[in-house]
Specification:
The protein has 2 domains: 114 residues, no CATH class; 135 residues, no CATH class. By secondary structure, it is an alpha+beta fold. The two termini are 19 Å apart. The radius of gyration is 27 Å and the shape is elongated. A hairpin with a 5-residue loop joins strand 9 and strand 10. Helix 1 runs antiparallel to helix 2. It has 2 helices and 19 strands. The mean pLDDT is 90. 23% of the residues lie in helices and 30% in strands. The strands form 9 sheets. A 3-stranded antiparallel beta sheet has the order 11-12-13, with no helix packed on it. Strands 1-4 form a two-stranded antiparallel ribbon. It has a two-stranded antiparallel ribbon with strand order 2-3.
Length: 261
């Protein structure tokens, strides 16, 4: 009975983690470029009261043995990088990636972060930056007298300026891909960082070598499906309640054992 208490407690802790992840998914349903996460579980160690194949007599062995599990643990939280739906904004600095890839962003400490959120702005120097002011690694600077900005699917950025017929080339946006994008380290603010699990970034032009193409005037929404998250929420809540009932049942059995005269 004491073992049942601790085993059910691990189940409640695991389902609490599941609910925490589901709550974060639902909270970010309207966050541009957000990728949902999923909890993975693994069973804990087992106590072998009778090992499988142990001799039960001089001429026979136990076919299955007697093993009792000690609960469950959170094996990991995997981020799903499936494509989110696109929304047209008509903002010339909004960009969506159709396919694989991340926008490399230069951080103040010199490191490079990566994001799928393509809602970019111009700072006071005309540089293309994130809403937090972090510039694209491509270092695109738009002239103050630019009449329009065009971002091609292959990342080429041009601007139409007065007194010039041909557009002026401002630079080319590159995208980063990873061998294991699920291994990226989430840093918040729609940013992720390279980790030992993700591998180093592979920079390339959009639309080449499996990298997604850019769509100007579009934003990629989150890939969270609210109906799926609500089903997962209900399932996690019921699993939590069942584990709580196991603890209650074990407590009642212990109470009856303590009341024996």
């Amino acid at each position: 009975m004491l073992r049942a208490l601790s085993t059910a407690a691990t189940g409640m802790e695991a389902q609490q983690t599941r609910l925490d992840v589901t709550a974060n998914n639902i909270a970010n349903v309207a966050t541009a470029g957000f990728k949902k996460s999923r909890v993975e579980f693994a069973d804990l160690m087992y106590q072998h009261e009778v090992a499988p194949g142990a001799p039960t007599s001089e001429q026979s062995r136990s076919p299955t043995g007697t093993t009792v599990g000690l609960g469950v643990r959170t094996a990991g939280v995997e981020r799903s990088h499936g494509q989110g739906s696109l929304r047209q904004t008509d903002n010339p600095l909004d960009m969506a990636i159709e396919g694989a890839g991340f926008f490399p962003v230069s951080m103040p400490n010199g490191e490079t972060a990566f994001t799928r959120a393509g809602s970019f702005k111009l700072n006071n120097e005309g540089q293309v930056v994130t809403p937090e002011g972090h510039g694209l690694q491509a270092d695109i600077t738009v002239p103050p007298d630019a009449l329009s900005i065009t971002i091609a699917a292959d990342g080429l950025v041009t601007a139409q300026v007065p007194n010039q017929v041909a557009p002026v080339e401002l630079g080319r946006i590159e995208l980063a891909t990873f061998v294991n994008p699920a291994g990226l380290d989430a840093r918040g603010h729609n940013l992720m960082a390279e980790s030992a699990s993700s591998g180093p970034p592979i920079l390339g032009a959009p639309g080449e070598n499996g990298t997604g193409a850019l769509s100007q005037g579009m934003l990629e929404l989150s890939n969270v499906q609210v109906v799926e998250e609500m089903i997962d929420l209900i399932s996690g809540q019921r699993a939590y309640e069942v584990n709580a009932r196991v603890i209650r049942a074990a407590d009642e059995m212990l109470q009856q054992a303590a009341n024996l005269r």
